[in-house]
Amino acid sequence: MSDITSSSFVRQNLLNERPAPVKTTGFIGLMRTRLFNSPTNILLTIVGVLLLWFTIVPSVKFLVVDAVYTGADRTACLTANAGFEVGACWPYIQAKLPQLIYGFYPEAERWRVNLTFVLAVALLVPLLIPRLPAKGLNASLFFAALPVVAFFLLYGGGINGFGVSWTTGLLQLFDGSIIGAGQVLLGLSKTSALGPLLWVVGNLILLVGTAIHWLIFPLIWLRDQMQGSGQSVWTDFAVTTAVVSVIAFFLGGGLRTGWRAVASSLTTFAAIAIVIKLMKLDHGGLPIVPTNLWGGLLVTLVVAVTGIVASMPIGIALALGRRSTIPLIRIFSIAYIEFWRGVPLITVLFFGTYMLPLFLPGNFTVDGLVRALIGIALFTGAYQAENIRGGLAAIPRGQSEAAAALGLSWWKTTSLIVLPQALRHVIPNLVNSFISLFKDTSLVSIVALFDLLGSLRASFSDPKWATPSTLFTGFAFAGIIYFLFCFGMSRYSLFVERRLNAHRRN
């Protein structure tokens, strides 16, 4: 065996220096590994830089560098007076900003719009922050109380009755519509080839309408008696409170736990009474501002928020109805979805604005903005139904079977297990529909409603600000507003998606 010493394994000479490793982090590393690591990426990088150069740079130059920031009229934004090539005319935006926000809303009453915006933000921001408590109360105030308060703030006016009067009015409207449809069929039976059939159907419909009239006759009598008492609002309020409390008592568990439901309903009605008294709704309320004076960002937000909030329950109901095992519900849901998805939104707005009044009783009218809101909510609900149905289809059947094994009812299984998971799957699709709806609000200008773009186009007719750059400045400002709202919704949806899908992260 040869002797092996430790010196045999020790290098006697130093190695030559090796080159430093290629840097793969930071800006240089990004350029080396992502932008210039192959001929294809080099070509794409050059094309991207050229696109940015020919779009971003001119935009910044127009909006910031060459822009005019002060001035009283169009002379400040003319190249001949400014001494250089004028970009954006921001004094025009400053002068027309009230019109772009409020439209033609009376200046003395604009505090009502500002108060509505403040209340909406104050209730929405805590609802969007996950760590803040009392989400149930906050959601009830935002989705239930705020729309009512906002209506009386923005539109004004008071109330002549409460639950009994309103219910009676709706039933009378429904009854009048049925009787009107029967009379139309009877009129068509005289000239149509299907005269006998139309005559029979028309008389049957009239018979149903007459039966409904006699069924609601006690409510009509009670409403007339309350209106003749001199304190119709508070009398109706007391009767409504008593009726709702009794119903809540029995639905809440009767003598065992029904008192909690009664206490909750009494608390709600007490808050409603405070609002009625503070806003003086029982004595005429605030001055009425017709919706034809509304405009600008106010109309855009009203249409977008109403469409977003109202379309969700419609979409959920239709998505569940389309998956129902009851043929009538399933066929109705399918027919509804396919019909509304098969017509453009412009057609819906035209129908709701100009043709819907022809189908209503002569003594009943619906405001033009309300008709547009109803049409948009029904239209968007059909699209949301398909989005939600996609999420429901992604839930394994084992979830429902496990819930059934635990003894849960269909309602609890759907509301507590299936539907939350389905909505989590389709957050990107839902928010995409919300963003599309927010931008589609500009279509209401076709039916004489001045949204942000409608007010902007109306402001172009002012000769005081007629300059070559006024048009581009106005549309750039509107584009920035739309981008801020849409980008905000997009980023928040990404935050919610990451938070709810934390268990799926790698």
Architecture per CATH nomenclature, i.e. the level-2 architecture of the largest domain: Orthogonal Bundle
**How far apart are the termini?**
56 Å
- Beta-strand fraction estimate: under 5%
CATH homology superfamily name of the largest domain: MetI-like
The dominant shape is globular
Describe this structure as you would to a colleague.
The chain has 506 residues and is mainly α. The chain folds into three domains: 16-61; 93-158 and 291-504, Orthogonal Bundle (MetI-like fold), CATH 1.10.3720; 163-283, no CATH class. The chain has helices at 26-35, 39-65, 79-82, 90-102, 110-128, 135-154, 163-189, 195-215, 217-227, 232-251, 258-278, 297-322, 327-341, 345-355, 368-393, 397-405, 410-425, 427-440, 452-459, 470-500.
Structure characteristics:
single chain; about 500 residues; mainly alpha; MetI-like fold; 3 domains
Task: Compile the SSE list and pairings.
Layout: H1 26-35, H2 39-65, H3 79-82, H4 90-102, H5 110-128, H6 135-154, H7 163-189, H8 195-215, H9 217-227, H10 232-251, H11 258-278, H12 297-322, H13 327-341, H14 345-355, H15 368-393, H16 397-405, H17 410-425, H18 427-440, H19 452-459, H20 470-500
Helix pairs in contact: 4-19, 5-6, 7-8, 10-11, 12-13, 12-15, 12-18, 13-15, 14-15, 15-17, 15-18, 16-17, 18-20
Short description:
With 506 residues, the chain is mainly α. 69% of the residues lie in helices and 0% in strands.
